[in-house]
Amino acid sequence: MPGDGNNGLEERNRYTFPPTESYSFKLEIDATDDLEKGRVMTRAVGVSDRLAALERLVYSPKGILGDFADSFVSLFNGATDDIPSRQTVPIVLLALGRRRVLPVWISSMSVTETLHNAALMPIHAEVQLDFQVIQPHELRAKPYPDIVLAVAAYKLNALERDTLALAHLATVVSDLRDYV
Q1: Rounded to 5 degrees, what angle do the CA atoms 112, 118, 120 make?
Q2: Quick check: helix, strand or coil at residue 44?
Q3: How far apart are CA 106 and CA 54, in angstroms?
Q4: How far is it, in rounded angstroms, from Cα 143 to Cα 174?
Q5: Domain assignments of the chain as residue spans, ordered by start
Q6: What percent of the chain has pLDDT over 70?
Q7: How confident is residue 80, by pLDDT bands cut at 50, 70 and 90?
Q8: Which top-rank group of organisms is this from (predicted)?
Q9: Does position 167 have pLDDT exceeding 70, yes or no?
């Protein structure tokens, strides 16, 4: 606050650390090439199979049958609480080049189907994807293979980022010598 002698530092220190890291991009999916190649699946369902594959990255790995099985078992186990078991979403490794692989959750996905075939199956779609980078403290402490891989990918990416930042600092120092 003005006049409190902190120069606004106290207010800035209220933010949580580490900060949330996210990525966003638009993906365009088109069936034209596959239709020209005569692929039977594409003629039948357009790009629906690709959209379904993306959707599987958003929902619980158990799927509808797993959820049904859990509900069925709870009927006979005398479950008394109405709170469903916490759903988990898959950890996705987002590759942004060979040297940047990040563990993420898809935080939102929006599909716009722009062209359809005669059976009203989409043959062109735009998918807006938003990703949240998973930080190690957000994962369960159990050593499941997907969690171990996600933590390793995060740490490797952090090391790469730190190395690149240090290399850039060396470049800045070198450039400053030209001005001195």
Answers
A1: 35
A2: helix
A3: 10
A4: 44
A5: 18-179
A6: 75
A7: very low
A8: Bacteria
A9: yes
